[in-house]
Amino acid sequence: MADPFIIMSAPNGARRQKNDHPALPITPRELADCAVQVYDAGASILHLHVRDKNNQHSLDVERYRAAIGAIREAVGDDLIIQVTTEAVGRYNRLEQMEMVKRLRPQAVSLALREICPTDEELSQAEAFIGWMLDERIFPQYILYDEEDYIRFEAYRNKGIFHNDSPFVLFVLGRYQNAKSPNNASSTGFLKKIQQARFPWAVCGFAENERQVITYATKYGGHIRVGFENNILHENKALLEDHAYMISMCVEAAQREGRTAASPVDVKNMLKFS
C-alpha cells in the first residue's frame, strides 16, 4: 500500500499582501482561522510565516509565539506547525539559527543554500542540526535545483543530517518564473527527485502548482500548496479560500490509491514526536 499523502499548507509566505488576495492571513487571529480551515480540509502541516508591523517578512520570535499560540488555541496540538527560517534578503544564517534556538518550534524549514552556503559553514551547520534533533525540533530541508540536490546528497552520505532519511522540499519554479515541471530545463532535477532515497515533498508556483500535485501523488512524494505559491484558479480567477487546493490534493491522492496523511501518520512516517 502506498504511503499516506502528506499535504502541507503554506497560506501566506513572505511576500504577498492583502491586495494580492483579501483572504491572505497575516494576523495571529487570521492565521488561526486559516489553520482550522486547512486542517479540516485535510492538511497535516501548516508552514508558517509571520510579518512585522509593516506586514513585511519577519523572523521575530515573539511574533511567532503569538501566531503559534493563536493557532494552538484554535486547533489544539494535533496540526503540525512548521516555521520558516527563510531569509528573503533580510536575515543571515546566524540570525536564522538563533531564531530557532530561541523559539524551539515543533518543526522548521531550512533552505540548504541559506543555512550552509558552502562547505566552509558545514561544521557549524552540522552542529546546529544535531542540536535541533536533540531538542526534538523536526527539520525539513529545502532544495531549489540540481546543484542543491547534489550537495545535499553528498552531505547526507557523510551523515551531516544525523538521519539517513531527512525530509526534503523540492521547489520547482519561482514567483516570477513559474515553470512547468515538464520543462526541459528541469528534466534532470525531476529525474533525481524520482530517485530520492528519502521522503520528499514538492511545491510549484501559479499554474505549475496543479501539475506538481499530480507529479507528487504519482511518484510517491508529498505536496505543499497554498497562497504562498498560488492564488488563482486555472481561469485566473482568485481562489475562494485556502481549502480549495487542499481538497484538490486529497482527491488527487485518492486517484492514486493514497489517503491524506493525518498528523499522526506524518509523525509515524517521518519518525518524530
CATH homologous superfamily placement: Aldolase class I
**H/E series, N to C?**
EHEEEHEHEHHEHEHEHEHH
Total strands: 10
**How far apart are the termini?**
24 Å
Q: Trace the largest sheet across and list its strands.
A: 1-2-5-6-7-8-9-10
Query: What number is the mean pLDDT?
Result: 93
Keywords:
single chain; 273 residues; alpha/beta; TIM Barrel; eight-stranded parallel beta barrel; two-stranded antiparallel ribbon; 10 strands; 40% helix; 15% strand; globular
Architecture overview:
This protein is α/β, with parallel strands linked by helices and about 270 residues long. The chain has one domain: Aldolase class I (TIM Barrel, Alpha-Beta Barrel), CATH 3.20.20.70. About 40% of the residues lie in helices and about 15% in strands. It contains ten helices and ten strands. The strands form two sheets. The protein has an eight-stranded parallel barrel, surrounded by five helices. The chain has a two-stranded antiparallel sheet with strand order 3-4. Strand 5, helix 3 (about 95-105) and strand 6 (about 105-110) form a beta-alpha-beta unit. Helix 1 packs across helix 2 (about 60-75), helix 2 packs across helix 3 and helix 8 (about 210-220) runs parallel beside helix 9.
